[in-house]
Design brief:
7-stranded mixed beta sheet, alpha/beta, 3-stranded antiparallel beta sheet, globular, disordered C terminus
Length: about 375
């Protein structure tokens, strides 16, 4: 596995002709189960084939199990300088229901150890909307977590995945989860609590103080290019020498098959989807509106030089309605959700995407109907 991670990293960096890497994120699954030597080897491979500055953000996702705490310092020596800890809950019974193999005490100890090693660079993940959870218990739990939390916290609403034991238990009525009205109140309550504690919300689910935002995740939300390495990883980059089209790439999910493919051809890319103009603009819109600052006109123009945000959205009745309801803002800065609107982003996106698609489609039809230009002397 270690050898294949290094080889695929080398192959994809060479294919993309990346000259500078600003962040590395070891995530997905349980990367903290890897040996620190594997993390170090991957980072050394990156540094050999691209400029990896000393200021580059290198994050490791961590499950706070007892055995891990002693390894954190080894990961730090391997090159990690930011930890993202999946606390999820401070209620032991809830952790069992969620299928987690740690306790609240393990979580608190891991957070404390990580903060001692990387002060100001520890993020904590916590989940709301869990079975049996009330608004009052959520607020108390969040308050307890913030008393030990570092400068970054991510809030996620529980999603029931079909095929899991938890999904089956809820379907059978063995467990009940809070309704949408309750989870909406939980989210709004958490935003207010975090604001009072000095955290700035910079994205739908992410809050930071003292400037401790996740630089790597910002690259996703700003539609930067990135390379996905390892089983099931996703990437977005322009392959060198294959035109100027960015591709959405997905690596083979099954680890054994992925290893075999990397050994045979240097990478385990299972699917390559060229991102046409509309598809790329859809990603810029969906990801950019997750940010509290939204999408600036300059950022949009980089991807859409032919049509600015006002041209696409200002005449839409749906957009005008969202603006009148103080949910969406379209002004000289760009397009963004209001404080209230950020909580309703998912319900707003379908109309915005339809408006974008309609504008792009009209432009393509006009281009097809336009008579071809001839070159020559007009006299």
């Amino acid at each position: 596995m270690s050898e294949c991670l290094q080889r695929e990293t080398e192959t994809l960096l060479r294919l993309s002709h990346v000259s500078r890497v600003t962040s590395v994120f070891f995530g997905g699954g349980t990367p903290s189960l890897a040996r620190p030597s594997t993390i170090a080897a991957v980072l050394e491979t990156v540094a050999r084939h691209a400029a990896l500055s000393e200021s580059a953000e290198v994050t490791l996702e961590v499950n706070p199990t007892p055995i891990l705490s002693s390894k954190l310092q080894d990961f730090l020596h391997a090159g990690v300088n930011r930890f993202s800890i999946g606390v999820q809950s401070l209620q032991d019974e809830d952790l069992k229901v969620l299928g987690r193999d740690h306790t609240s005490q393990h979580a608190l100890e891991t957070v404390g150890e990580a903060r001692a090693l990387c002060p100001g660079k520890v993020s904590v993940d916590v989940m709301f909307g869990r079975p049996g959870q009330s608004i009052a218990s959520w607020e108390l739990e969040l308050d307890e977590l913030l008393s030990v939390c570092d400068d970054h916290i991510s809030l996620y609403q529980l999603t029931l995945e079909r095929g899991t034991q938890l999904f089956s238990q809820v379907q059978k009525g063995q467990l009940s989860v809070p309704g949408d009205d309750i989870t909406a109140i939980m989210y709004e309550s958490a935003r207010k609590i975090l604001q009072k504690r000095g955290y700035l919300q910079y994205e739908v689910s992410n809050f930071a103080k003292n400037g401790a935002i996740s630089q790597h995740n910002m690259s996703y939300w700003k539609a930067s290019q990135y390379i996905g390495v390892g089983p099931g990883a996703h990437g977005r980059f322009i392959p060198h020498g294959e035109g100027a089209c960015r591709e959405a790439r997905t690596q083979t999910l099954e680890p054994e098959v992925w290893v075999r493919e990397v050994q045979q051809r240097g990478h385990g890319t299972r699917r390559r989807i060229p991102l046409q103009h509309l598809g790329q603009l859809e990603e810029v819109l969906v990801m950019g509106l997750r940010l509290i600052d939204g999408i600036t006109h300059q950022h949009w123009q980089f991807f859409s030089p032919g049509a600015d945000l006002h041209q696409i959205f200002s005449s839409s009745c749906e957009v005008q309605d969202l603006q009148q309801r103080d949910l969406l803002i379209l002004d000289n800065r760009g397009l963004r959700c209001s404080w209230q609107g950020l909580a309703f982003l998912d319900s707003m996106l379908p109309n915005l995407l339809l408006q974008l698609e309609a504008h792009i489609t009209r432009g393509q039809e006009m281009d097809r109907k336009r008579p071809p230009q001839s070159l020559g002397d007009n006299n």
